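Subgroup meeting minutes
Present: P.N., E.W., G.H.
Scribe: E.W.

1. P.N. recapped why we're keeping a running log of single-chain structure predictions: easier to compare across weeks, and new members can see raw inputs and outputs side by side.
2. G.H. added today's entry (153 aa).
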Amino acid sequence: MKKMYFSWGVFLMAGTLMFSACKNEETAVPTPTLYARLGGNSAISAVVDQFIANVAADTRINAFFAAAASDQARLTKLRNNLINQIGEATGGSEKYTGLDMKTAHKGMKITDAHFTALVEDLVASLDKYKVGNTEKTELLTALAAMKGDIVGQ
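Output recorded in log:
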């Protein structure tokens, strides 16, 4: 009789270990990247297109983009740079190949108010596409790191 209890005890211990191992494997599933949670390139492209439209209509900052807006090739390059920059910053396979932010904004005299207006236009784009608060915060945090290289240049 003692042997039987011992056998059941070993069996129960082995089963517990097996289920514990399965549970650890389930919790080890990697969290999707921000890029994936945003919806990838097509979703980022849609947000960028709306963002460009918002900026074009925003009299607080649209003068900074007037030259690009009047030249289709420059506008396309700006659009692609934004898509690539956001894609790369969020874990996508895109590669940003444009100028660094200090060089790109040198001499523009962008103020905190201008930067805030730009962020508000981006948030409006994200809201239009119902981007979740977690993803929105993560994206804005990633992009906020560039502020020092943009404002006051």
